[in-house]
């Protein structure tokens, strides 16, 4: 199977600090990849490089056969890689419906002339906005101002906005952060079933190992800027280094220094 | 509601056009200037909705005015339609050029940089003898496709011209606010990161808004030059820009019609204030602005939609 996303020797340094290094991996289409790692392990740096928010110091990123390394984020978005954020990026002074319309119109229009000539609330954008609102089950909040939404709904809205315009790859940066423990599984159920129905390739950053074990087909464990384990959730989460360095289920072994 | 607003606008336009010959000449002249300035205010509304306050819109206003004045003086062009088209286009080109820099800035930096740009033009105008220096120069009265009115007829012809262009601009900008580019103003103000990750360049979006607002300001300046029959560097001075900001606050950015009503109210209050208290008219204007901000923070325009909403609540 050909990979939809391939990364080769990716590296990012900020001065003398190495935020990511030697990252090489392939993601086949429609796989759901969980990314784990402690704070500062390079997970968000990795996502930021793929989405064009950061330019890698070294290495290449390909979307199918297209080299997208270092392209601006809006171009990468147009090519089919979309993302949600750790802190939901929404339009606070618009309602949920208007947020979705703005997203659908923005993602659906190409070029300045299309944007000057087409109405924002065209039948097509309204249809797409309504469909997303249903898909992510936020219809109860349709006319609520986005600034007044509870945290879980904000995250769902953020992800829903990332999904309009039919991306092929979706990166979710901590979709459950800021959500209470009781709500986490419910939110992830909604998100994952919505994404499955759109046949998306998903990479999501997550700290909760139970969520990773339940929703991921594959786990990438980050430590110190690089991938230390890559495999099926059961295998990756049972990896000794993952257990000592990330999930904390095993104490550090003496003599294991990693500086 | 869309067609109702349009109908109301069309009726108001016809009524004002029809009643003009019966009005005293001073009022017609005042309304001519007010509506010419309202076009500039409409341009401010476009930027304001995206969260930008241009404190140097006089740059485009003066560009439009001087383009008309210079063409009429040195090239002998007299046709008002041609002059106005060139004035608006010249301002649009200037906006396009300065836009490469301005569109990258936000908030106070945008405001101050646009102010700086307009003051550069002011400096050039003041120091250049061929451009009339501090005194500026007289603008010959124009012709309307060969028709050459004088006195009262000219006064009315100019008014109808300004009114017609106002109606067309109001209609076009109302449509623009419904387009993707127009309606993304609030999202751009709210969250640029989200828009970028939806594939939109906010810088280009703002650049486009600058060009549209520049064209409107140039149109207003060109009309003002013809209406006043004079241009001077004050048209590029920061107090002129400040006046447009003042009217935008007075009118509010919620409706297109408010720009015209607000501009008319501003000119009326100003001329009445000058009449009543020649030495203190700024005091009255300042108080009017203070009262607006205190009691109508969304401007005069919010009166329209408050009136419109009240009966809907009952049903």
Structural summary, described in words:
- Chain A is of the alpha/beta class and 259 residues long.
- Helices cover 38% and strands 24% of the residues of chain A.
- Chain A has a six-stranded mixed beta sheet, with helices on both faces.
- In chain A, a hairpin with a 2-residue loop joins strand 9 (218-223) and strand 10 (226-231).
- The relative contact order of chain A is 0.17.
- A two-stranded antiparallel ribbon of chain B has the order 1-2.
- Chain B is an all-alpha fold and 315 residues long.
- The A-B interface holds A 51, 73-75, 77-78, 82-83, 85, 89-94, 102-103, 105-107, 109, 112, 114-121, 158, 161-162, 164-165 and B 176, 178-184, 186-187, 189-191, 193-201, 204-205, 208.
Describe the secondary structure blueprint for this structure.
The complex is a heterodimer of chains A (259) and B (315).
Chain A: E1 3-14, E2 17-28, E3 32-37, H1 43-50, E4 58-63, E5 66-67, H2 73-79, E6 81-84, H3 96-108, H4 112-117, H5 123-135, H6 151-163, E7 169-172, H7 181-197, E8 201-205, H8 209-215, E9 218-223, E10 226-231, H9 233-238, H10 240-247
Parallel strand pairs in A: 3-8, 3-9, 6-7, 7-8
Antiparallel strand pairs in A: 1-2, 1-4, 4-5, 9-10
Chain B: H1 2-19, H2 25-49, H3 58-75, H4 80-102, H5 107-127, E1 137-138, H6 151-178, H7 180-183, H8 185-190, H9 192-196, H10 202-228, E2 230-231, H11 238-251, H12 256-276, H13 281-295, H14 301-314
């Amino acid at each position: 199977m050909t990979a939809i996303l391939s990364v080769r020797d990716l590296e990012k340094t900020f001065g003398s600090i190495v935020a990511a290094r030697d990252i090489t991996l392939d993601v086949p289409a429609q796989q759901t990849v969980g990314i784990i790692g402690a704070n500062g392990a390079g997970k968000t740096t990795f996502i930021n490089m793929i989405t064009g928010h950061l330019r890698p110091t070294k290495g290449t990123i390909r979307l199918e056969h297209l080299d997208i390394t270092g392209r601006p984020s809006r171009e990468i978005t147009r090519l089919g890689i979309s993302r949600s954020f750790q802190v939901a990026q929404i339009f606070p002074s618009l309602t949920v419906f208007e947020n979705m319309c703005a997203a659908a119109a923005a993602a659906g229009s190409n070029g300045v002339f299309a944007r000057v000539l087409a109405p924002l609330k065209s039948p097509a954008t309204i249809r797409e906005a309504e469909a997303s609102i249903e898909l992510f089950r936020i219809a109860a909040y349709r006319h609520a101002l986005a600034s007044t939404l509870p945290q879980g709904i904000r995250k769902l809205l953020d992800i829903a906005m990332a999904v309009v315009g039919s991306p092929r790859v979706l990166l979710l940066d901590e979709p459950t952060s800021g959500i209470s423990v009781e709500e986490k599984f419910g939110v992830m159920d909604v998100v994952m079933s919505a994404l499955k129905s759109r046949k998306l390739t998903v990479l999501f950053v997550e700290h909760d190992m139970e969520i990773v074990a339940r929703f991921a087909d594959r786990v990438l464990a980050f430590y110190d800027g690089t991938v230390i384990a890559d495999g099926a959730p059961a295998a990756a989460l049972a990896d000794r280094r993952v257990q000592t360095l990330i999930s904390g289920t095993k104490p550090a072994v003496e003599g294991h220094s990693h500086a | 509601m869309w067609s109702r607003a349009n109908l109301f606008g069309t009726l108001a336009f016809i009524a004002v056009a029809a009643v003009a010959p019966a009005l005293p000449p001073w009022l017609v002249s005042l309304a001519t200037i007010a509506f010419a300035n309202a076009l500039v205010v409409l341009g401010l509304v476009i930027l304001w909705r995206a969260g930008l306050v241009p404190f140097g819109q006089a740059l485009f206003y003066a560009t439009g005015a001087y383009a008309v004045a210079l063409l009429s003086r040195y090239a002998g062009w007299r046709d008002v339609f041609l002059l106005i088209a060139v004035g608006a286009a010249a301002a649009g080109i200037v906006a396009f050029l300065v836009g490469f820099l301005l569109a990258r800035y936000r908030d106070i930096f945008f405001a101050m940089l646009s102010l700086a740009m307009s003051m550069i033009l002011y400096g050039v105008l003041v120091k250049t003898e061929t451009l009339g220096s501090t005194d500026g120069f007289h603008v010959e009265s124009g012709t309307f496709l060969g028709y050459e009115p004088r006195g009262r007829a000219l006064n009315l012809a100019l008014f109808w011209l300004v009114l017609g262009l106002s109606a067309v601009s109001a209609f076009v900008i109302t449509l623009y606010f419904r387009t993707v580019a127009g309606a993304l103003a609030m999202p751009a103000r709210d969250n640029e990161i989200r828009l970028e990750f939806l594939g939109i360049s906010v810088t280009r979006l703002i650049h486009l808004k600058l060009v549209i607002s520049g064209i409107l300001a140039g149109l207003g300046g060109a009309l003002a030059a013809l209406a006043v029959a004079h241009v001077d560097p004050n048209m590029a001075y920061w107090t002129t820009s400040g006046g447009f900001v003042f009217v935008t606050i007075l009118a509010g950015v919620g409706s297109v019609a408010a720009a015209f009503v607000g501009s008319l109210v501003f000119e009326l209050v100003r001329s009445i204030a000058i009449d009543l208290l020649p030495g203190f008219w700024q005091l009255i204007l300042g108080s009017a602005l203070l009262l607006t901000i205190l009691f109508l923070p969304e401007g005069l325009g919010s009166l329209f939609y408050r009136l419109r909403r009240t009966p809907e609540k009952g049903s």
